[in-house]
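mind reviewing these tokens:
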Amino acid sequence: MRLTHGMAVWTMVGCTALWSMAGVVTRHLDQAQGFEVTFWRSLFTVVSLLIILPLWQGKDVWRRLPWRNPYFWISGVCWSIMFTAFMVGLTLTTVANVLITMALAPFFTALLSWVFLKARLPLRTWVAIVLAGAGIAWMYGSQLSLNDPNFVTGTSVALCVPLAAGVQWTFLQKSQSKGPVDLVPSVLLGAVISSLLMLPVSWPFQASAHDVGLLALLGLFQLAIPCVLSVICARVLQAPEVSLLGMLEVVFGIALAWWGANEAPQMSVLLGGSLVLGALLMNQWLGWRQNNV
């Protein structure tokens, strides 16, 4: 599957909308907590991908897995870190705190791309990163002022997500420069690793049937489908561009948690989120204009 640049941008927007479901759905769980939440979501992601991948790429997809390719393992480990740290972070602090911390991904991605890929980014992308960073700093500062006892722990765990994302998008782009390699199955590898790591610390299970149903929904629609699509988009988009588009999850996730779980953000969070969204739109519009002149 090969997307045009425009199609890849809109597909990534759709991915971020699906990713943003996690916060609001988590707030409607009855009994499942902490590590068990991560286990069930990762397990159902594994089940979903075991069905999706053969239907999409054929039954011989398992024979084509790039076991000897180091990028396959790097990508899988990064996915497992993101899957695990995100859900654990959500159980420790607010949706806004986790998403704001995750929005640091473009800074890490841009730095890693500059170091490992020697990438020369257009000025518009750097300006967008600076503006988005200002919006994030604004939102982050407002959360620090609340003196939440779980803020430091929750945000420290959540910080693993943008770090892993920066490594993920950078090395995924580097892998494509060395010849085509299918890293879509690395999403499955990441879910398997996450499930195995969380199983011992999740026992004994406390999730109700209602909780398991919601986490199964997340496994399919919030992880399996959008993560596969994001890997495909990363073949077309630059690593910092993918990371910047991923920041839309901040806006979507906070809005959904506010609407669906009554977790209202402060006004500074709303204003900072608007600045992030504006930076993304500016970057994409200038890029579209440059490509069509």
Observations:
- The two ends are 27 Å apart (CA to CA).
- The CA atoms of residues 66 and 72 lie 6 Å apart.
- The chain has 14 helices and no strands.
